[in-house]
Each structure stands twice: as C-alpha cells, then as structure tokens.
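User: Fold both of these, please.

Assistant: Here is the first one.
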Amino acid sequence: MKRPFEWDAKSGRVMFFQHALHEYSLKDRVALSQLPLTVTVCLAAVLVALYFPATPGNPLFVIFLATQAAVWLLCHAVPWDRLPSPTFLAIPLLDIVSIGLGREGGQDSPIGISLLTVFPVIWLCASGLYRRSALVVSFLGPLAMIWAPQFIHGTHTPQDLLRGLLFPIMMLGIGVSISVMTQSMVMQQKRLEERDAALLRALDDSQQKERLLKTILETVHLGVVVIDADGREMMANRKQRENQVLGASGDTDRHGKPQLLVFDADRVTPTEADRRPMRRAALRQEFTDYLVWVGTGREQRAFTTSARSMKDCDGSYLGSVLVFGDVTALVDALAAKDDFVSNVSHEFRTPLTSIAGYVDLVLEEAESLPTWVVEQLEIVQRNADRLLSLVSDLLAVRSGRMIVRPHAVDVSELVKSSVASAEPKANDGGVRLHIDAPERLEAHVDANRISQVLDNLISNAIKYSPDGGDVRVTLRQEENALVCHVKDTGMGMDKQDHADAFTRYFRAGNVRNTAIQGVGLGLSICKAIVDAHGGTIGLESVPGEGTTFTFRVPA
C-alpha cells in the first residue's frame, strides 16, 4: 500500500507525499476515505473519556466505538478490487448507522457526535455514483438518526419533530454542494482528459511528420539547412553536413571563427562574409540560384543556393531555409559546350573567309562570265557572308559581347526587305505575311543587326506556325523609341517557358519532340543585339493561339 505519509526518523517529522487519489488501488482509496472519520472518532473518544467519564459506560456508545473499529478493519481486510464497484458504498452507510448509535449513547456529552455524519455524507456524494440516491440518504439518514429515538421514546411531538429538521437539511445542503462540485470536477477532468488525448494525438502526429520530414531530407540529394532568427543552425541533413566538411578550412580568423572555403564564380576570389549564402539568409535576404564555389583543388564544387524566410502567423521572422544544389557537372558541361562552340566557330571562320575571298575575286571578272554563273556565285557569296555572320554571332554570344554600329537608316525598308525575303518560306508553309508600318521611319540603329533580329523573329513565326496562319509585323515610333511587334497565330508556348525563351540553346517543351529544326540560338542572339542597342525585348504567348514578340530600341 502506498502510504500518504511516512515518519522521518532523522528529522523527527511526518513526511507527506503528494499523490493523486486515482493513483491508489481501490482498497487504498477506501481506507483513505475512511481515515478522517476514524481519526476524528479516536479524538472524540479521548475527549469523552477525559471530560465525560459516564459516557464510555453507555452500551450504545461502546457499540459505536466497536462498529467504527470494525469498519476500519473492513476497509483494510475486504478485497474491494474484486467486488463490484459500488460495494464499497456500504462503508459510509455503516458509518451513518454507527454514528446514530454513538449520538444516542452520548446524549449526556455536548460534543455533538451527530456532526460526524458529515464524513459519510461527503463520501457518498463525492463518489459520483447514484447521485440522487446519495442525496436522499444524506437527508433521510440524519433525519432517521434524530426521529427514530423520538418515536422509540414516545416524545415525537410536532415541535420536537420540526426542531430536528435543521440537521438533516444542513446535511442535505452539504451533500448537494459536494455533489455539484464533484460533478463539475468530473466534467472538468473529462475535458482535461479529452484535451490530453488530443494533445497526445497531435504530439504523435507531429512526431510522425517530423520523422517523415527527416526521412525526406536525408533522402534528397540536395543540402538543406535551417537557421533560426539569430542565424544559428537548427537542422541540417546528411548532404549538407558533407558540404560543410568540404567548405571547412580548419583555420580560424582573428576573432576565433572558422574560416570557410567559399569563392565567387571565378573559383579563386574568396566570397565576402556578407555575401555568403548562410550570412545572407541570416540577414533575412531571400535569393534563388545564387552560385558559389566551395572547397579547393580537385574537390572544389559549384553550388547553386536558394533561401526562403520562415514567418509566423503575425509575420514575425522565425528563420530561413537554405538549399544547396551541387551543379558542378552542369557548370563544367556548359563550359565545355562554350569551349566547343568557340573552337568550332574559329575552325569554320578560316575556310569560310577563304571561300568568300575567292568568290569576291571571281566576281571581279563578272563581265566575262555567263549571267547564270554570276547569279549562282552571288548566292554563294550571300550564304558565305551569312555563315560568317553566324560564326561571328556564335563567338560574340560565347564572349558575351555584341558589337553594333548605329547609323541613320529607314527601318520601314528593313521590315519590308525581311518580309520579302521570308515570303518563299511562308508560301511553302501556307502562312500569310502582313506588314503594318509607315511608308518611311528613320532611326539611328545598326541596319545589319536589326535586319538580323527581324529575320530571326519572322523566320521563327513562320517555323512555329506549321499548320499555316497569319504573321503580322507592326512597326511604330512611340516617343523616342522604335517599337516592333511580330505576331503569329501558331502553336504558342507555355508560361513556364517564357522566362527561358531567350536563353542560349533553349527550345520550348512543346517543340522539342517535333520535326521543327533549330538549335535555340536565334532568340538569344536577338536579345544580345537589342541589349547592345540599349533596348528591351519580350514576348506574350498563349498555347494554341500564337506568340507576339516585341522589341523596343531607342530611335
């Protein structure tokens, strides 16, 4: 049995232990419930023996003490756990009978033994079982305790009977109060248990989600790290821990902080502390695809980093999540591709220059050659010049430079010339060409480069209208800018392809599996030319309805 108190021999004090009543067995709970009455009866017996020596000799008072002793023994001897649950309520009922005998046997002592009835009343009403019956017993038990002796002795006058009603009414009031309080506590306990169950379910669900999140983070091939509002690391997956080992130099700065091997895009310039991904995230910056190099020598790796802030419901900053993606292979592949394009372009330039040069020499004697030979040589010359221009464009795109030489030119004439050159191809594809341009519109631009832009845009409009349709070229001057629209009614492109349309070697997803030829350089060259003029180029497109390209350059 778990005792509620224990004697401490060292300190000479009784040590009480705080335990919830429901933590004890039913047998222990019955004994604890009876304990206050038993202790009070013992104290009352001592007081009666000291100050009222005649009372202990009363047989009824002796029976009262004997029954209380027997009840106390029953509380400890009976295996209440094995009996039906309400059986233990027999104890407070026996107490009421016993107290009634004690009241009758202690009439010559003014101690008020009948007040001991409050203990079994509280027990009955606090049990929560048979609430109405408990209230009835709380009233009828004390009433019988008072009226029964009056009827036995024949002193049951109306005045005597009414005089004795106060005590049972008081016991009933106590019983009602205890019953209401118990019911309220039971309801409150039930709500608390429901909340505890809900919290346990929420905790279990949270732990399950946490395990799932950790599994996902450990599975992905990206480094993921979470920092708090102060920039301290809260969580990192296995891949990120490997990245951190790669970036650790093992040395410390003058402040004792570890030095990191983080470099800019050139792979040799150390990245400034405030420009490192972790530091930028700690400064509450958000970024996407920020490239850094980590490590040195052959182990150096390229990482594209992204960061997003975490905020609570009130918008307060909680921290950031960073993602590190290893793009070393992609960066090396792009560099190898650019080197290949550069080398091939240089190799093409020498024979093309030779071809163009010899064609020029032959055409110097055009007067002595047949007309049909001259015409074919001129075609060779134009195509050789076009190939040389394309090689120059490839080299310019590779180096990031596009040289333009602006001069006064009639742009309307350039539009008409480009449309006329595209008419044979348009006729073959069943595409109708339209021009909406003023008769003459002069601007200070590079005629060859602007013609190249027009040729590329019109050619694309025809190419990506495989089922025929209309292509309209519109030229306008707005304030101090030259604005040109090339609109088709072709296949269009998805929104996700808009941002990459002007990227080198990019082809839209809906044309990669078609027979439409192309390497994805035309639009990037157009953008480079327009940028070199200080202008802008953009597009609007709807899948299945067509695309409109618009470029604007200073006039």
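And the second sequence with its predicted structure:
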Amino acid sequence: MSLRLTRRSALFASGAAALPATAWARSAANDDAGLAEAIDAYVKAAMAAWPDQPALGVAVVKDGETVLARGYGVREMGRPGLADENTLFAIASNSKSVTAAALAILVDEGKVKWDEPVKTYLPGFTLSDPYIGEHITVRDTLSHRAGFGLGAGDLLFWPNSNRSRAEVLARVPFVPIEDGFRANYHYCNLMFVVAGAVLEAVSGMTWEAFVQTRIFDRLGMGQSVPMASLADPAKSALPHARIGPPLRYQGPMTKISDSIVGIWDWDSAAAAGGICASAADWARWMILRLNMGALPSGERLFTEARATEMWRPNIIVSGTPGPTAELPGRAIASTYAMGHQVQDYRGERIVSHGGGSPGGNSFTVMIPGRKAGVSVFSNAEENFLLRTLRSGLVDIIMGKQGFDWIADSKALEAKGIEDSLKAAAEIDAKQAAGAPPPVPLSAFVGTWRDPWYGDITIEARDVTLWLRFTHNPALQGELEAYDGNTLRTRFPDKREEDAFFTFEIVDGKPVRATVKGVSPDIDFSYDYQNLRLTKV
C-alpha cells in the first residue's frame, strides 16, 4: 500500500527520513528577536521550496507576547497586493476551538453543563441511533466520539450548499452512524454544528453574534470575522488550488475564487469551520488559550478550570511505540479533547488543530509548557509546505535539531504525485476497457433519494445523462458509462470531485445506488460513501 497524504492528513503526518541537521533550530536564540528572525528565515526558505504558494499568514507567541505576526507573499497570484499581518485567511477547522470556548463561557455562567444530554437544550433532538441520540452530551459533540464515520454528513454543507443552518440541523437525525458510541475517534464536523445549535438555544444569540461580541470584541480581534460571508475580498487572501488535469490536486496552481465565500460558504456550519482570521488576531487567541482564559487586563474570558477541561483528552486518536530515529515526531499517544488535539511531540505536550478549506490550509500548535505557540494560514493547497512549517517551526521553538523537513516533505510529495498519476491512468484505462451498461441509459433517468441528503436527479440531455445534486449547485454534470452498472460523473466545475455511481439492477431496472469518489486523493468531506440512494 503506497503512502498517500491527502490535503488535510498531510498537516499531521510526523514521519521523517534521517537527514542532516538544519541550521534553523541552532540559530534560534533564546530572546524574542532571535526567535522571530529564525522563524522568518525558515518561512522564507520553505516558500522558496514551494514557489507556487501565493501567501501565508504566520503568528508566533511566547510568554504572553506576540513574537511575530506577519504576512508573506501576495493575496492573489500575479497581482501586486501583498499579504500582511491583518490579511484574512479561511482558517476552517481551527474554528472548532472557538466554539468550544464559547460553550465554556456558558458553562462558567451555569447555563450549560458539559455532560448534560444535548436533548436537554434541544428538545426533540435525536440521531439515527436512538440510544446515542438520547445520551449524547455537549462534551461528546466537541470530541469526535459520537460514532459517525469520517466526515459523515459533510455534503449537507460541502461543497457550497444552499441549505440554511436550520435545514442542516433538521437532516442530522438521518445521517448514518457506523460505530459504537464513544468507542473510537472519527472526525465529525456535523456534531460541531449541533454544538453551535446548543449555544444558540441557550444564549438566545446566533453563533456568529456570540463569537463576535463575547470573544472577538473582548480580545480586540478587529480584523477577524466569524463567517466567510463577512470577509471583505479586498482584505482577504484569495483561495488557490490545483484543479487538474488529470485529477484534483494536480496541474498548475490557479485562483479558484474571487472571494473566500465563493468557494467556502460554511455559514450553515460556521461552528465547525466558519471563521476567517488574520495572523495578528490569531496571536491574541493563542495568548488567551496559553494564559488559560485570562485576558491581558487580568479579566477572564473563561475560568482556568474550563481551560484545563477543554484540553483534557476525551478519546484516543492513535497510539504508537513512540518516536524513532527515522520518525522523531511520532507521538506515543494522540488524543482529542474539546476543539483541540492533544499529544506528545519530542517529549513535550502540544495542543493543536488543523484546518482545510478549498484553496487553503492552516494549523495552530501550542506548547503549554513553554507558553509558546505558532500558527500558519495559507491560501493554497500546498499540503506539504504546511507539513514542513508545522514540524519545522515547532522544532525551532523547542530548539530541536536534526531533520530537514523541507527535503523530507519534498520526497513524500514526489512519491504522492507519482502514485496519483498512476492511479489516474488506471482509472482511465478501466473506463476504456469497461463493459457497457446492462440497461439503456434512459433507465437511469429519474429522482434518486437518500434519507439524509435528499434528492439527486438524473435527466436525459441529447445522447447523454445529466446528474445534479439538488443542494450543492457545483455538483452537476454529465453522467457517463464507466464499467457495467457503474457510471461516473464529469462535473464541469473542476474545483469539485467526481463520483462513481454503482446501480443495483432488479428485473432490468435500476432501483438502488451507492456512491464513492473517483480520485484516491479525494477530501473526506465529499462523503459520497454515506449515500444510499433509492429511485423514487
């Protein structure tokens, strides 16, 4: 099995080959100026290794102070507008820590209890497994342990959906659950949407109003906005990506939208990933978290008890024998708390989260024992650049030496590209040799319904079929023969991922269908595999 690091997982892979010691860790002085200089030099070196990256926003904090908050590159490829410390980036799932903190404020006020069932605050709430729906708590919604599969239900809001927040919430009870309650870790955006609904029900405010007034305003985060629809394109790092050919994440780098919201409209799921932030503002956020909820004035946003509890592990993500000479960053235990991942790294505890949106990646890493943290926001899907920065910058802060993360990530990237190109050729070859459909194409025409997603329609257009996901406008295009009873889409919007539809034929008629992504590199939020379609 070949190593393939997808757009999000690349941020968290810690394997490295043994390579010569770098100069970066050695050059980082103990003083803030020396640290800022070392960070700046490393970022510039990494960007030189990935010259297609348009912009980065970088923040480093230590001992309650911002050591560095800086923009690098340009907000849009080929245009002169430079990124700076106030440039907005989509930070995606880094938003989850803000949702957890917002609920912590309500816990301090006695309005919410972590271990109270969700149905206490959302009467009538249930899930497709009634037992879990009865017993799932607020803590569970923030901990990825409800039993849903990876990314389950994400098609309710990814890619850009026309559903409102209330409509997303109304579909939650129908999304399938594949594992036991609190049995294993499965990353789940959907339960953070539920957590946001709890906040709204208890506070009487929208999630975005609460975050703006109770968190951003108090912290002085004057540039950041809780939802991408509020991000001014003139102040934003515009999203870029490789959209083929032959597959998504291959081909030349290109701008994919004239605004963040044009490709990343998560207003309906803002509690899971809606925030757009600047490096300067996010430095304030890291300082708050490292100060365990204390503001610079000495006032508190939330108590130390809540801060401690939000970083207490709730579910094991993975466990290994630990670091080796070849894998110096491998954690003995990686866990998820509430809105943050908590693990060991080079013998110290780190608290972290990543974020992936179309056209951008980001990460936050805090080292509580050093009262230090670093975040990087990007406006392109250069996965391995972010991997390089995540490990390399943390190593600089820790004063570690011995690995060239740039060279290591470049090697992994080259292997991934080789595997992806091979997979693309195999996909095309199988279609060229594929058997014809067992029934006329006209037999597939009609409405196909899934219990949680809703309707997908297939209609005849000239001599072809046209498939349309009714709630995701970008997911529509030709449906063509692939191999026997499996057809495949050809979405004209190449920013999106195509899908295989495999139909069950009964008495010469298609009656049911399952779906999966075409590309082996597909982002998990295209949760096609959770669809169970029946012809209406």
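The two ends are 40 Å apart (CA to CA).
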